[in-house]
Amino acid sequence: MGDEREMRILETPPMASSRTLYDEVGGMPFFEGLVDRFYAIVAADPVLLRLYPDQADLGPARRRLTLFLAQYWGGPTTYSDERGHPRLRQRHFPFEIGPDERDHWLSAMRSAVGAMETTPEAAARLDAYFATTAEAMRNRD
Ligand code: HEM
């Protein structure tokens, strides 16, 4: 007769109760697509673009945001392996982020999320996170 505990393991889908948003949206390709769309908007928005130290090559910034978001939502920890602890607020201090910059950033990200195919639940979680975090990055009145 099979061990009861073993049966339960066999019958329970792995990680059923802790499926990450990263998995839910389809993993890295989702975050790559999202950040591609976001940076296409940044590149065409002078309010945002002027903040970027390397406006001629947004590639490295794009990669950092992609890896950070993937890590934040439960994907691989490549961001921290390469960059250490995110310390996002501190890393944003050099950039003057007031309400206008925050709003442009958030609106660009909302358009990017809206252009991705995902569930309304995942979109709502992303949206709430981006709204709170964009405000947290504001360092000017
Ligand atoms: C949800 C809100 C935000 C998140 C999650 C986020 C995330 C990030 C990350 C992960 C980096 C790279 C940090 C590093 O490893 O060096 C970064 C850089 C940067 N962020 Fe943000 N950010 C947010 C909001 C904003 C806002 C509101 C602005 C200004 C409008 C902004 C402007 C920048 C700039 C100019 C950089 C430097 C680009 C670069 O990496 O070279 N960010 N951000």
Structure summarized in a few sentences:
The protein has helices spanning 4-11, 21-24, 28-43, 46-49, 59-72, 78-83, 88-92, 99-115, 120-136. By secondary structure, it is mainly α.
Describe this structure in words.
The chain contains nine helices and no strands. It has a single domain, classed as Globin-like (Orthogonal Bundle), CATH 1.10.490.10. With 141 residues, the chain is an all-alpha fold. Helix content is 65%, strand content 0%. Residues 48, 51-53, 61, 64-65, 68, 83, 88, 91-92, 95, 97, 101-102, 105, 130, 133-134, 137 line the site of protoporphyrin IX containing FE (HEM).
Write the layout of secondary structure elements.
Elements: H1 4-11, H2 21-24, H3 28-43, H4 46-49, H5 59-72, H6 78-83, H7 88-92, H8 99-115, H9 120-136
The protein binds protoporphyrin IX containing FE (HEM).
Keywords:
mainly alpha, 65% helix, 0% strand, binds protoporphyrin IX containing FE
Question: How large is the count of helical segments?
Answer: 9
The name of the CATH superfamily reads: Globins
Order of helices and strands: HHHHHHHHH
**Which class of secondary structure composition applies to the elements?**
mainly alpha
N- and C-termini, Cα separation = 69 Å
CATH fold field value = Globin-like
Average predicted confidence as pLDDT: 93
Percent helix among the residues?
55-70%
Uncertain runs are none
Question: Outline, from the CA principal axes?
Answer: elongated
The CATH class designation is Mainly Alpha
Biggest sheet features:
none
Spell out which ligands are present.
protoporphyrin IX containing FE
